[in-house]
Amino acid sequence: MLMRKINRFVSELGALGGFARGALGLMLCWGAATAVLAANPEEESALSSMAVPETSANLSAPKRLNDASNAALNLPSKVTPSKITAVTVLPEGAWITRQVAIARDIGEHASIELADLPPGVQKDSVQIEGNAVRVIGPMQWRVVPVAQSEAYLELAKAQALERRAQDQAEDTLEAAQMRLAIFQAQMGAPNALAPKAGVGAGAFLVEPMVRKKFDQLLAQLIASQRAEQDEVNAIQLKINALNATAAQLEAQGDRLLLSVPIQIRAPARAALPETGAADQPAIVFIRYRVNEARWQPVYRADLRTVRAPQGAATPVAGDAPLVASHAEVDWSLDALVQQTTGEDWAHVPLTLALQDSRHTTPVPKLPRWLIGFNAPSPITPQARLALAAPMKVLASSDALLVPQDSTGFNAEFKSSEPVHIQSGAGDSLIPLLHQTVAADAMVLIAPALAPQGVLTGEFTLDNKIPLPAGQWQLFLNGAQIGQVAQAAIKPVQKQNLSFGVDQRIAVNFDQMPDQRDENGVIGKSSQLVRRSVITIQSQHTNPVAITVLMNVPTAEDAEISVEPLSDNTPPTTKQYNGEEGVWAWSNQIKPEQKVTLNFGFRLRWPSDKTLFGL
After folding, report:
1. Which residues contact 246 (CB under 8 A, 6 or more apart)?
2. Strand pairing partners for 173?
3. Residue 293 and residue 118: Cα distance in Å, rounded?
4. What is the overall mean pLDDT for the chain?
5. CA dihedral for 245, 248, 253, 258, sign (positive or negative)
6. For 382-402, what is the mean pLDDT?
7. Burial class (CB in 10 A: 0-12, 13-18, 19+), 315
């Protein structure tokens, strides 16, 4: 092949003219030297063994990977091939499901050799499932050094192949460099060759057609050298990546090998006719639990009080947001998944669960509780509480609000499509739910807490199952304003979230000094009168729904008298959201309108007693 390239190159030089043929002697010498090199195996071996200077990434790669490369090429695999087919992530931990296909005769004893398992596998959690197999012995575990793991050996094989490709690419690059050097030497000596060809000195450089041919050949040789150099660089990058992956595997530590003795059973008779089930491999599912994985819910709620223009994707606010009853909330639930298990979850269906329903709970058994004067009780009250604790957890209100699945014990969210989550790659955000629901936007004012109006959005989630507690990221017309932690949410439960202070609602809270007095000669009583004046003014350009909240004290003792003052502004309700003593004034305030509310109460109690809680 190399000689064919030389002959083609010579024929191209022949088209340049008679005076250029003098260059052929040097070209033929180079071709002969190349032929001698190709015919000498020792020289060729020496050329192939030349190593490219290694980069810093290559120097940091594990040395054992290089040592194991050639041996790994012909290493037979003794493990049972398996693949991850499903993952269930818990708030702390995850269940991994692997599928194994075993081609064996019915009745034959076999062993599943599941290799390259991460060191964080909970050994007592392994579950074997398969209608065509039966476990006939105890599971055996063995620690496999990382350099002997299946994944590491696969890297070694890949690196050995890349090293061979690198040697070939370097040979090709060296040949291209030699061709370019020879050609450049010929172009640099036209005056020496011209007299022998019968052409005047300098004609080699000045004849347009000749120079054009030489320029074309030079461009081709330079392009060939660059292409070969790019190939060498690309292979080196692949080797560096393999070394970096090997370093990551070494950092994860040793792996585990699981051996499960099984016996192949006959399939169901109904499957035998026409389906060839007896010839099909036995499918086995192996599940195990790992600790190095977790997920947490992330909520997003965007209160939209401004209508989007026709054809616009997002609303455009004017001089102030419109606070009206026809607002809406765009909310979503995402899952933030983390995993450092040491094995990648490559395009598998993902399930997010709130409880570990695969762990068994012992049957509760309560012993007799004996009491007496002489012998101590065989079980102390503290021990009784400890025994009852698990049952109390199951019966608690929080546990009963846990989302339910088809089994009635757990809530599960399934990804709409397979996902890929690499071990140790950081957080992965997976969308679960997304809805837009109607909302009631209102400015809520509690002057006794702070003289300001808080924009709130009240809406009902259309969730079929309860939702877990988590952080809600809050937005107002697309602009993020903060976040808040929310408890678990029942199905179709009304929510009321704060979306920040409404700067266009001015609130003034004027509380008068308390008036204290004592009445009576016998059985004196103390009296306190407290008055407040609340002034609210709107700077919105549209009517705004507002609610003002104030507290009337609630007495826990019959000797304490609580009387609202007669000149109070009548409230809309005296039990806001069912809270006794919480008065509320609800109405719409017009642009530039000022609203004044009077509020106060009188307290009486025996003078010989001290009143707390004011």
Report:
1. 61, 62, 65, 152, 155
2. none
3. 12
4. 74
5. negative
6. 40
7. middle
